[in-house]
């Protein structure tokens, strides 16, 4: 379906990419999910290598901490910490070694991330995103930004959906389009920036025609080929959202959304250019 009219159809995803455990990245079965999560560094999303614990109690790989700089805040809780004062977490290192040994026996409990049908919530959409329909000004509707949220929100599990776009000539505006997730409490009235500070984690095409991230850092993405379809993969258990080239299954970017732990996340769509069409 396309953004106008507001309807989508479910799509079963192609074969998923392979994660650090050596099997399809569909997450752990519920009974063993905490084991894999505790063995995973929230920065590099891989097995901990020489895990170090900060004064706030959060753990990271030694080489990941080295990239934070001398004066930094914890990426998880934002507490001010000194990476140089971190201590080795030997208990966690032993657990990671155990998980690695158990990895061949866990194959049967990995599940493929299911595609979810994403239905757009018409009551949140900017009026001009809906054709041939009168739009009342309700509290949850975006009144300035050309945004719309998915009807269903997520707090647990793995979820993924795919989006393709048809673009006109790129002119002015904040962005041509953006797709990702947003927290339930995202501001609906007035203007705002597409960033994690506003509770938005997305990627999309800038007004310069570049694929960029819309989170804390606004990085330019390096693509090996023109992007035909974008896959959004949300993991509510480790609190990250991954963006992939749905054709090649190549990972483009991963955003950590742990700062809104416990809050519902919903599919997010932004169209900043007249004539842009997003299809799912």
TrEMBL record:
Alphabetical list of PANTHER family matching this protein: E3 UBIQUITIN-PROTEIN LIGASE TRIM
Gene Ontology molecular functions: zinc ion binding
UniProt keywords, alphabetically: Metal-binding, Neurotoxin, Toxin, Zinc, Zinc-finger
Domain RING-type, first and last residues per copy: 41-78
Name of the molecule in the record: Uncharacterized protein
Functional note: Neurotoxin that produces dose-dependent hypolocomotion and hyperalgesia in mice. May directly act on the central nervous system, as it is 6500-fold more potent when administered intracerebroventricularly than intraperitoneal.
Organism, as annotated: Naja naja (Indian cobra)
SMART domains cross-referenced by the UniProt entry: PRY, RING, SPRY
């Amino acid at each position: 379906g396309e953004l106008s009219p507001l309807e989508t159809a479910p799509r079963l995803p192609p074969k998923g990419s392979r994660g650090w455990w050596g099997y399809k990245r569909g997450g752990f079965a519920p009974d063993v999910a905490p084991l894999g999560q505790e063995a995973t560094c929230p920065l590099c999303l891989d097995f901990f290598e020489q895990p170090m614990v900060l004064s706030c109690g959060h753990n990271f790989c030694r080489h990941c901490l080295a990239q934070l700089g001398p004066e930094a805040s914890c990426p998880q809780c934002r507490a001010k910490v000194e990476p140089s004062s971190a201590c080795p977490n030997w208990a966690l290192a032993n657990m990671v070694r155990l998980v690695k040994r158990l990895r061949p026996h866990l194959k049967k409990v990995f599940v493929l991330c299911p595609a979810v049908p994403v239905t757009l919530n018409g009551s949140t959409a900017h009026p001009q995103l809906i054709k041939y329909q009168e739009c009342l000004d309700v509290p949850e509707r975006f009144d300035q930004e050309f945004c719309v949220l998915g009807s269903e929100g997520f707090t647990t599990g793995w979820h993924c959906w795919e989006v393709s776009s048809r673009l006109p000539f790129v002119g002015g505006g904040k962005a041509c389009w953006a797709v990702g997730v947003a927290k339930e409490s995202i501001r609906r009235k007035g203007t705002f920036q597409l960033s994690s500070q506003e509770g938005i984690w997305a990627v999309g095409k800038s007004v310069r025609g570049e694929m960029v991230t819309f989170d804390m850092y606004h990085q330019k993405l390096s693509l090996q080929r023109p992007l035909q379809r974008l896959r959004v993969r949300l993991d509510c258990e480790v609190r990250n959202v991954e963006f992939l080239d749905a054709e090649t299954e190549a990972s483009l970017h991963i955003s950590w959304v742990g700062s809104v732990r416990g809050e519902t996340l919903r599919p997010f769509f932004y169209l900043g250019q007249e004539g842009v069409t997003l299809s799912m």
